[in-house]
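This section describes the prediction task in plain terms. A model, or a person checking by hand, is given the sequence of a single protein chain and must write out its three-dimensional structure as a string of tokens. No templates, partner chains or ligands are provided. The sample shown here is typical of the held-out split.
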Amino acid sequence: MRKVIIGALILLILLGGTVFYMYKHNSTPTIQPLDQVVLLNPSGPTVIPVIGLDSKEVTEELNVQVQYWNNIDEVLASLAKDEAQFLVMPISAGVNIYNRGIDIALLGVHEWKVFYLIARDGIEFADWHSMKNKNVYTPVGKGQTADVLMRSSLKEVGLEPGVDVNINYAPPQEIVALFKEGKVDFAALPEPFVTMAIQGGKGQIVLDFQKYWGNMTGLNERIPIAGLFVTKNFLKDYPRETEMFVDLFNKSIIWSNENSDLAIEKSQDILPIPPAIIKSALERIDFYYIPSQDCQTEVNTFLTKIKELDSESISQVPDSGFYAK
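The expected answer:
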């Protein structure tokens, strides 16, 4: 009898060890519940579409904290510390970060129209030949969208940038001041700096870069300028919460489009530009959300084209892993 009891005990111990081993090696890690998610957003005009989220005009069970960045180094630091799950960035900036081996993915594009060419009062623009021997300014950062399109177009008509056309790079606020003083013939700028520069009859818009892009490529008259990104770890661990956030983000864009005066008012502490300037600028900016699955071909065509036009514009055209699945 004693031998039977000992044998049973040994069997139970062995079975228990087997169950423990199977549990230890086959169980999935526990995903921690979320207290909040963090969205990093630029402190420029893209404040407007997220102000519904930030001001809690648009809410859901997901708690969202919006933080604002001024340069890409701040974004990289936050990603390195795993402090943010969602990011709004220019598409080209997102590409360069992705190509550095940082695991982010494009969820969708929401800024499609913002770049214009302006000329000071008394200067005419018939075509790109009109810029010969003229003084042209564009924001710091050679390789940004308007700069790439402008320089490539000048080359196409036989004008060498820097030789036949004097191209200068400066902060947009400085360009606005120089333009108002009559020291700039042409400027390729994003809104709201376009509105700031030409107010008071100091100049006029002579080219819509979005329409020009459409004519150049035969595509839609829009440019995938900025979009919403997610870290891939968060997307993998929290797919439901990612969907919830995208829905909130889209609702915030719609809310700001339908309540522009209130959106401008609520953004004043973050975007200290006179409300009248922002209101006028918004007439020439398009914010609407398109998931990356629905615009991947368009984004990829844009990236391929600007890489062809300027090899330094982006590090390389990203692979399919750049787009959220």
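For orientation: The CA atoms of residues 136 and 186 lie 5 Å apart.
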